[in-house]
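Interim report to the steering committee. The following record documents the input for DUF5317 domain-containing protein (177 residues).
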Amino acid sequence: MFIEALIFAVIIGYILKGNIRNLENVDIKRTYLVFISFFIEFFIVICIRKDFFNIGIFTYILNSIMYILLVIFIYSNRKNKYIVLMGLGFLLNAIPIFLNGGAMPVSAKAAKAAGITLNISKEGLYSLINENTRVWFLGDIIPLTFLRNFAISIGDIIAVLGLMLFIIMGMKKTAKN
């Protein structure tokens, strides 16, 4: 979903007379933390899909490290309102993940509507919403079937909105403003 958001943001940025090269003029610190964080998540998902390990204390610790790195990145760039907006989205995702044993709760209804298998725990850091799920409404409850099939959360929407605004406004930024 973030890849599609990046592509759409660049297209919108160009439509609004921006230039991708203008992103060089955006003051952003510690971007490597974002890449490390997403690498950690990618590593966890691949290992779960390959049955190297299941969701548990190890994935909980790795998830914690990932979110700590994201918090440091967001704090380092707290003057940029779009990065702060992304951070709010990440926080809204972290809450249900950490309150539910390190897995994002997913609605069976949203998964079915998006054409996603209900064996969701083998797809990554996900678990189906049940009667014991805490803050289920912050989980992946919204089916999205545009371009690819997803079940997304309110946090995803806010994070993607922040990312898109960051790219679009960054593309419009020149060296003097």
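The CA atoms of residues 138 and 153 lie 6 Å apart. The committee is asked to note this result when reviewing the revised timeline.
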